[in-house]
Every structure is written in C-alpha cells, then in structure tokens.
Amino acid sequence: MNPDIYREIKRRILFLEYAPGQILNENSLAREFGVSRTPMREVLYRLSWEQLARIIARTGTMVTQIEFQTMMHTYQTRLGIEGEVGRLCAELATDRHLDRIRTIRESCARLMDKKDPGALVEIDRRFRRMLHETAGNPVLKSVSDQLYTLTFRLWYVTLDKGEWQDEVREMLDEIDTTLAGMEARNSRETSRARREALMRHFERIRAKYLGVPGNVRL
C-alpha cells in the first residue's frame, strides 16, 4: 500500500473534503495520484477496513456516513480505553512528559482569541500523542487511535457550531484535569478525568449535532 496516498485520502475524508456518502472513483483517483489501479485499490480497501469507506459492488467506494448511533457506541467503547490511558499516564509520567503537556497547554491557551479550527485539532492530536507516549502501550495506542478516527468527523463537523472560546476552554479543562492527576501520581483521578472529559465532549457534540440538551450520560 502506498502510505502517502493513504494518508492524503484519509485526511480528505476526516476533514470532510470528501463528503459522507460521496463515491470515490478508483480510476479518477489513480490518474490524480499518477499510479495504477492496484495501489489505489489497496488504499481504498484499507480505508474500508478502518470503516471510513465502504466498497459497493459495481458502484465504487463510498465515504461512510456519519451515523450518530454508531458514534455513540464508539464513544462508549472509548470510555474504557481513555480510562486505562489515564491510569498508565499517572503511574508512568516523567518530568519530561509533564513539561511537554504544559507546553501543549500554553499553545492551546493562545487560541482563545484566535479562531483556528485546524490549530485546535492539532493541539488535540499533540495532547493525545503525548498521553500515548507516556502510557507506553502500543496496542492501547492503536485501539485508541482507531476509535478516535471513527469519531473525529462528528467532532469536526460540529466544531464551528457554538462559541469558539467555549471549545478552547473545554480543551484547556481537559488538559488541566488530566495534568493535575498525573502530577499527583493519582491513577484513579487521572482515569476519571479522562473518562469525564470524553463524556463532556460527547454531550457537547450531541447537543450541537442533534439540537438536544447534552445532559444524558453515555
């Protein structure tokens, strides 16, 4: 599989440059990227395996829809994963890990008066990478990343709905509560902070996506 083509098509799907339900033409994509159909087919099969696309016989490859019920189930699964990441982070964090998270927090705070969704997404990714590095479990990271990918589009499509500063404050609060637990070496509190941050995140998205109050827990 061509990793560069895979990353670019995946990026287009995640950032909604390819809309949910859009048909991706294998021949057109092969011409665009200057490759034969075989490597393009390998990329599309990989995206299908990741549930970002769906192979339809005699039609082509369709970008999967954002199905809220599926997203809810995915968030429910993420709760246990995030809790375990938090526990390991509290037990294994070094001063270097804590310092790097503080640096990420400073970068996030600078977005309070500068609306930049792409920058906020990158802050989120940097923070997650740092947590995974601290936890030191590659299998846990792989599962966490896959589940995160499945829910990313739902977050991104709602990112412009509501007040920008509220989004930044929520990110800062997530970083602060996680960091506090890690600094105290309190695995229970850090695990709880990770789960509660994810539940608040889901509730905000649901309120914006469905237009209903976000007060029902996962």
From TrEMBL:
SUPFAM superfamilies: GntR ligand-binding domain-like (SSF48008), Winged helix' DNA-binding domain (SSF46785). One of its GO terms (molecular function) is DNA-binding transcription factor activity. Residues 1-66 form the HTH gntR-type domain. Keywords: DNA-binding, Transcription, Transcription regulation. Pfam families: FCD, GntR. InterPro entries: GntR_C (IPR011711), TF_FadR/GntR_C (IPR008920), Tscrpt_reg_HTH_GntR (IPR000524), WH-like_DNA-bd_sf (IPR036388), WH_DNA-bd_sf (IPR036390). SMART domains: FCD (SM00895), HTH_GNTR (SM00345). It comes from the Bacteria. This is GntR family transcriptional regulator. It comes from Desulfosarcina alkanivorans.
